[in-house]
Every structure is written in C-alpha cells, then in structure tokens.
Amino acid sequence: MTRIIIIGAGLAGLSAAQLLTDDHEVIVLDKGRGVGGRMATRRIGDATLDHGAQFLTTHTDEFADIVRGWVDAGAARSWFDGQVGPHGSLRTDGHPRYRGAPTMNGIARHLALGLDVRTSGHVTSVRADGDGWVVTADAGELRSDAVLLTPPVPQSLALLDAGGVELDPSDAQALRRIEYDPCIAVLAVIDGPSSLPEPGAVRPATGPIAWMADNQRKGTSAVPAVTVHTSAEFSRDHWDEPDEVVMAAVLDAAGLLHRAIAGLVQVHRWRYAKPVVSHAARSLTAVGTPPLVFAGDAFGGAAVEGAVLSGRDAARQLR
Fold it and tell me: Reduced to 3 states, what is the DSSP secondary structure of residue 204?
C-alpha cells in the first residue's frame, strides 16, 4: 500500500487520515503528548479548561453533516446560538455554536480512534528521496510515498528547509505570504462561580482581552475555572515577559486578580493562533516534488471548520 505520512495531529491531519486510512498506510506524527493541536484541554487541580479553540460553528453543508456525526457520537454538543460580544450573547445568526464533549480535545480524540497516531515525537526534517520522502524524527527515519504537512506554515517550511527541499518559487511565495496572529492564554481556577453573562463567555470590544469563558458554565470543568485569551496586540507586546507578569496584567484586566487561587494559574502561548492572511484554496499541492500537500486552518477558511475541510481536501488531492 502507498504510505502517507501526515505531520500534525490537529483536526486537519486527523480529518485527512480518516479519509485515507482505508486505502493507504497512513502514519500521523505529532510532537505533542496527545492529539488535537489547538483543540487543547488542560487539567489544573480539579479544574478542566479548554485553552485553545473555544467552540466551533458550521457554515457549509459538508461541515454541518460532519458535526452532526460528532454530536450523534457524543463527541460534541450544542453550547449557544448567537454571536458573543462584550456583554455575552448578542444575537442569533443562524449558526449554532458547538463545544466538544466533554472538552474540545474530545473531538480530536474521537477522530483519532483507529488511526496510527504517534505522539511525543519531534520531527526535525523532511527531505526528498527519489520519488518519495524521508521524515526524520526523534525515533529515527520513516520513509513514505507522500507527505501531508498540517502544522502552521512557518513550521512546515522550516522542516523542508532542514531537509534541503527547494519549493517551486510560486509555491514558496504563496506559502510565505500566509501570516498568523499570536495569542496568550491565561488559565485560572477561581474561588467561586464567575459573574460572566450568558452563555458564560464575553468578547470585549477593546483592551487586552479578546475572549474570556467560564469552563464550569460551559460544561467542561467540575469547578469554576476561567480561560482568558489576550488580543494579538497584547500578545505581541508581552510575548517574552515572564509568566508572572502576564498573569497579573491579564487577571487584573479580567477583574480576577484577587479571585484566582494561588498556584492554580497557568499561561500558554499560541504563536500561530489565528491566520490573518490565508491561502485562498483549501490546500496547496506542491509542484516539482514527490507528492507533497500543505493543509490547515490557513487554507481556504480559518477556525475549526476551515481546518477540517482543508484536511479533507488535502486527502482528496493525495488520493
């Protein structure tokens, strides 16, 4: 069987693997301890917090059908209907928002069932070898007939650079045009229920906070715990500051500085949190190389829906 190596066990990589695994030998590699990428969940004490993607919504029939399957399987459930603003839910817009069940990472774990996913392995290079590829990771070298790269594009390009791969100039230009905004997530277990309005989340119009959600109200955590995402501007300005400085500034802006429980606050930095300059197509198939495809939420549409549909499009290209 044709072997395809997929780098990245986020939703793009897992969605592609699902479509390919019946007809190909598919290996999914990820440097993380588990699957999901930015569908990330963390335990702090007795609390459980989604600290990457916070919800998902559907805008296409294809993705709506997929989400209905997740709901039927118990991997997702409805959270709220409407756009969230500075004072909670603003208005309905015909697009229900869903959350993972019990966590956002639960969707990724559902997708990974039955797949050959190998985590905790840092990939260091991808190099061409005749009509195929050699992927070098901590555990050694793996050969494949095709490669699908789903990490943030700068990371994918770094792997190819390390392997001495020169892309066609038009492909290289298109990929280097993609840009991302960073985000800092502050995760805090608090001393009692939050005062966030329905649906348990706000999206401030100004200031350092871009999003704040109560994981207990969301149905994710057994105890009160808040996820705060900072704005791109704040994230860039404070990226290299110590965690303690970031925590204090963000919790103060959120009105939680004296409600956070000591020792139960953590910071996570998402360098490539949100694509702000995307590639128009759902995926990009490289020319002049052995079979090589790029996919992810920076291709054809952002957020969870964009990642899933990009991965599926990449799988069709590889077929």
Answer: coil
Q: How far apart are CA 291 and CA 5, in angstroms?
A: 11
CA neighbours within 13 Å on the CB side: how many for 292? 24
Query: Can you spell out the DSSP letters for 278-304?
Result: -BSSS-EE-SSSSSEEE-STTBSS-HH
* 80-101 b/e (C-beta count within 10 Å ≥ 16 → b): bebebeeebbeeeeeebbbbbb
Q: What are phi and psi of 98, to 5 degrees?
A: -115, 155
Q: Which amino acid is at 199?
A: P
Query: What is the tens place of the pLDDT at every residue in 10-50?
Result: 999 999 999 999 999 999 999 999 999 999 999 999 999 99
**Helix 169-176 vs helix 153-162: crossing angle, to nearest 10:** 140
CA distance 103 to 41: 7
Which tens digit of pLDDT belongs to each residue from 62-94? 999 999 999 999 999 999 988 999 988 777 888
Average pLDDT over residues 268-280: 97
SS3 21: coil
Q: What distance in Å separates the CA atoms of residue 43 and residue 50, rounded to the nearest whole number?
A: 9
DSSP annotation of 151 reads S
Query: Tens of pLDDT along 230-261?
Result: 999 999 999 999 999 999 999 999 999 999 99
What CA–CA distances, in Å, run from 153 to 50, 177, 207, 248?
Answer: 24, 10, 29, 32
The H-or-E segment that residue 251 falls in is: helix 243-253
